[in-house]
Amino acid sequence: VTSLPPWRRAAPARAEIAGEIDLLVTAPVAFVQHLNECLYCTSDPRGVNRYDPLAGGYGQGARMTWLAIGNELGTSELDAVLSLQPDGAEALRGLLAATRASIDADLLEPVAVRVAQVLDVPAGLLVELVGLAPEAVDARTDELRSWPDAPALSERQRLAVAHAEQFVIDVEGIGDADIDQLLQVLPADELFRFQVGLGVVERTLRFCRVFEIAAHQPAPAGATQEVAP
Amino acid sequence: VTTAKIPLPDAPDSPGISGVAYAAYAPALGGALLAYKVPLGTMRSVDHLTKELVRLRNAHVAGCQICSNFRNPKAFEAGFDESLAAEVDDPTSERLTPAQHAAVRLTEAFLLCPFLDDDLKAELAERFTPEQLVEIVLSLISWGANKSTVLLGIDYDGDERLQLDPRFGTDFL
Q1: Is B144 within 8 Å of chain A by CB?
Q2: Measured between beta carbons, which residues in chain A are less than 8 angstroms from residue B121?
Q3: pLDDT (tens digit, 9 = 90+) per residue, A16-26?
Q4: Is A146 strand, coil or helix?
Q5: What are phi and psi of B18, to 5 degrees?
């Protein structure tokens, strides 16, 4: 595993910066001064986490991916990468839509958030690509903050998230007894849809991870806070 | 013999046992997975031989019988021969080109630890265009569906050589 660049690990500070910038965008001089002096922004040489008020978001015009792609103003990094294979991208969005329609949101949302955390994928991509609502990502991130205790989760959700986590990290660590335990809270048909959908989300987020795609939207406020390792 | 780990309403001893589960429990999701394959079959930025090596490495890592047994005829037309099937598991194989080795390493990274190191990124950028790399990884999103079916014990474990089914309308599977 390659150590991540410092601006990635600095992500939890983003909430503070966002709050600060919300005030600063109304004061252009102070905003420029902020960009020049803020250790956070200056440690982000490619501007991935830099707020651009003209473009209306984070990372606008900036690149984090290592793919040699264009840097067109107004295009998110995700769209720029997906535009390389537009038919496949459209099909992927269709597959993700079918996944959302096939799995109970109470299961899909916390599981997707946890998979993104494990793979260190920006939470904003859960909105931009996986298609979750920003407020859902925010709420689920909040629920998962004390994971694995996470008292806000039901037993069904806890088992699903634990299963997803193991599935991502080492699928061979999942035994027959684990499947049997899931079958206690999920009927066979629902378990099958959950497992297939989990796989779709996991592979989609691995796509994002492999190409190190930046999120266009700021991470939901809750997603920028400390999460379980 | 593979044993299904979830109850299935009907699991005949026939190729494609996962098809039973999709038909009974997730027809919409199964249909979406098939639909996802169609545009992948029209992508031509990566040659069929390289894609077959990637597909087989994915099959071997996942331990999927049905995927390991399958051969894409288009790959044979592009120069694949049966002895190459085992070569994808050998990082020192001299029969694979540097670009093919790089594609296999990308496959392994995607499946096992998707935090690419700088050396691999540099090699991939040298050997492939961004369009090709996206095609490979979008393909892995499809092929990687076997991770779930293997986990649930519903990957077919027969040894027949499966072929492309023209009903899917694509040369991608």
Answers
A1: yes
A2: 66
A3: 434 443 333 33
A4: coil
A5: -60, -25
